[in-house]
Amino acid sequence: MNIAPVHPRTVRRTCRHSPSLRPRHHRFSLSACLVLGLAVGAGRAFPQAPDSLLAPSALKKLSLEQLMAIEVTSVSKRPEKLSETASAIEVITADEIRRSGASVLPEALRLALNLQLEQSKSYDWALTTRGFNTPDFANSPRANKLLVLIDGRTVYTPLFAGVLWDAQGVLLEDIDRIEIVSGPGGTLWGANAVNGVINIITKNAGDTRGWYASGAVGSLLQDFGAARYGTSVGRHGALRLFGQRLDHNRTTLANGNDAPDQWHTTQGGFRSDWSPSERDTWTLQGDGYIGREQFTADRNTVFNGQNLLGRWTRTWSGESALQVQVYFDRTWRHYPDIFAEDLQTYDIDLQHRFPVSRSNSVIWGGGFRLMRDQVENGLFILDPAHRTLQLYSGFVQDQITVVPDRLKFTVGTKVEHNSFSGFEVQPSARVAWTPDRRQTVWGAVSRAVRSPSRADTDFRFPLANLSGTPDFKSEKVIAYELGYRALPTERLSLSLAGFVNDYDDLRTMNLLNPPTGFVYANDMEGRTWGLEFAANFQPAAWWRLRAGYIHLNEDLTVTSQRAVTVPTDEANDPADQILVHSILDLPSHWQLDVVGRYVSELPAATPNVDNYFTFDARLAWQYRQLELAVIGHNLAEKEHGEFGTQTIPRSVYGKVALRW
Question: How far is it, in rounded angstroms, from Cα 420 to Cα 470?
Answer without folding.
Answer: 8
